[in-house]
Each structure stands twice: as structure tokens, then as C-alpha cells.
Amino acid sequence: MEILRTFWRSPVGPKTTHFWGPVFGWSIPVAAVLDTKKPPEQISVNMTAVMCVYSAMFMRFAWVIQPRNLHLLALHVSNETVQLYQLSRWVKAQGHLEQKKEEETH
């Protein structure tokens, strides 16, 4: 019971935005994971790149703020991973499309 009490009173516990921000933020990487089932041609490269930069910046923020917010860090590491995967899918699809165009012209 003491563990729960300590967590409740923690500066990153459920009485703070340091807790609830990341809880709701998990919707971003969850949505990105669900998007992995879509064709790579539907990926918005601009938005995916922005999400990569956004998560990289917030990973640093989560590490340097006091108290250190490991929940926020985990959220943005997860998001960065999924967004980079989506970006790699888009790049591979673009290479495949260019290869098809070259084959059609020959």
C-alpha cells in the first residue's frame, strides 16, 4: 500500500499533468501502429517527418526536466520508433514506384 501512496504523492504521479499528458499522448504512437496496416502510398511524409522531429525534441525535454519524466520519455521513444518505421516504408515505396516507372518507359 505504501508503494501506491508514494506513487500518488509523486511529482509525476496521477495528480499532475506530468502523468496525464503522457497517458493521453499514447494515442499518437497507437494510431501510428494502426497505420502500419495501410498502404505506404497513403503515408504523409511531411507529417511523419514532423512527428519524428517532435518526438526527438520531447525525448530530450523528458530527460532534462526535473523531476525526470520517464513515462513521457517512453512515450516519445515509442513514437519515434514507429514514425521512423513509417518513414522507411514510404521511402521503400517511393523506390519501388520509381523502379516501376523506369520499367514502363523501357
UniProtKB/TrEMBL annotation:
It is found in: Mitochondrion inner membrane. PANTHER family: UPF0041 BRAIN PROTEIN 44-RELATED. It is a multi-pass membrane protein. Pfam families: MPC. Belongs to the mitochondrial pyruvate carrier (MPC) (TC 2.A.105) family. Its main location: mitochondrion. GO terms for biological process: pyruvate import into mitochondria. Mediates the uptake of pyruvate into mitochondria. Keywords: Membrane, Mitochondrion, Mitochondrion inner membrane, Pyruvate, Transmembrane, Transmembrane helix, Transport. It comes from the Eukaryota. Coiled coil: none annotated. This is Mitochondrial pyruvate carrier. One of its GO terms (cellular component) is mitochondrial inner membrane. It comes from Quillaja saponaria.
